[in-house]
Amino acid sequence: MYWFPRSYFFLISALFAGQAYGFLAPLLDQGEWGGETGFEFRYFDDPGEFGQEQYATSLRFQGEYHALWNEDQDSFTFLPFVRLDQQDEERTHADIREALWIHVGDSWELRGGVTRVFWGRTEFNHLVDVINQLDLVDGDEEKLGQPLLNLSLVHDWGIFDFYFLMGFRERTFPGEDGRLRTPLVVDADNAQYLGSAGKDSMDFAFRWQRPLTDELEMALSLFSGVDREPTYSFNFNFSDPMLVPYYSNKTQVGLELEYIYEGWAVKFEGIDVTNLIQDYNAATLGVEYSFYSLFDSNVDMTFITEYMWDSRDETAPGFLEHDVGLGARFTFNDEFDSTILAGLLWDPETDEKVASLEGERRFFSDFKVKLMARVMMERGQPQVDDSTIAILNALASSNLLNDEIVDRAFIIDFIVDLIRENGLSILFENEQFVPALQQLQRLANANRKLSLLESDDYIQLELIYYY
User: Fold this and answer.
1) Domain 30-384+423-466 maps to which CATH number in 3.40.605.10, 2.60.40.2470, 2.40.160.10, 3.60.10.10?
2) Mean pLDDT, to the nearest integer, of 165-180?
3) What is the DSSP string of 394-438?
4) Hey, how many other C-beta atoms are within 10 angstroms of the C-beta on 323?
5) How are beta strands 146-155 and 108-115 bridged, if at all?
6) pTM of the full predicted structure?
7) What are phi and psi of 272, to 5 degrees?
8) How far apart are CA 286 and CA 121, in angstroms?
């Protein structure tokens, strides 16, 4: 064995460390630190139907480091994030929201590291926004940082962005003790992949945006890689029923349009998706009108109306397959950056409604308070015919499901057929099998999509300190 003197090892290590420090010195010596701490309190109108408390508290910490060098042609931003939750252990987590280096050239920019990217124009549903994974334990619009390399070219024909996405991040979900969760807990630790999809996938995305006229702007995008939105399968363990997320590759072509004229704004997002599970199209069309200096005050108000459509209809995994969104945004234009956003989602077919109110305001220069409230106003009622009830009663009163000779495939086929044809909405008496089927039915029956949020009307208050 070749023997290497330890002193040489330390000498060479010191030399490399010196070179590394010389390279990183501008980044380490010229940067500035900042941060914020937020205290969040949630109060729910009712106790959780799975034994959760009516209230929950959490703390979050986010640092921010920013450095500029090379005559401001290079920059580095670092955003670490930590949340500590009193109720849900799955909500206690840490993430690097951003660790991004940017180099600016004459007509190009190169970005490398971890960051969050936003695509889209509309307010209620961001169809084209596919780069980052959702962080559902932190909020329904929060995103996990995505490792990537991005080359942006500025041309007379517009801005061309090429994205190379390095690795796939699985979606986070509330745990068993969390609120705002599905009736069946999602087994995020045992996610499955279809086809060539996997955590080590190298995905690709492209976006071209440019103004077509003085009033009209367009963006075309292409994504090829692992779908950030999973589908779900029942684990068929009736003593510990859970949903298993399945991820597959997809190819998505997106179109964004925004037309602005005086106080009017017309916005459109449309996608065409091809994947292993189901090909589909979806679109959102929105119209906004802004009233400036409302009633001769400093307040501006923007009225928002949007229609959301998905070709998958009731098989769409989300809530927005044929819904109307109505909203109003108030900007007070004061020294406290006060804003209010009120919204309503309405399904014309089932008459289901979800109302929301969000507001924020600074005070004492270093503090901000945020308020959010959501109310489930109406829920659809499923229709089950007498023949289905008779079948389910016969099944419940028999010993068929306890018979070892009945294999798993038979049970799967039976349940799938019932869900597709009628849905399951009958009470059984089996202590383990019955609750699992009831909750599975709530997930599968699109006529009661808001029942996923049963008893989860809530108000959330967050106090943030900036330093």
Assistant:
1) 2.40.160.10
2) 91
3) HHHHSSGGG-TTS-HHHHHHHHHHHHHHT--------TTHHHHHH
4) 25
5) antiparallel
6) 0.80
7) -125, 120
8) 9
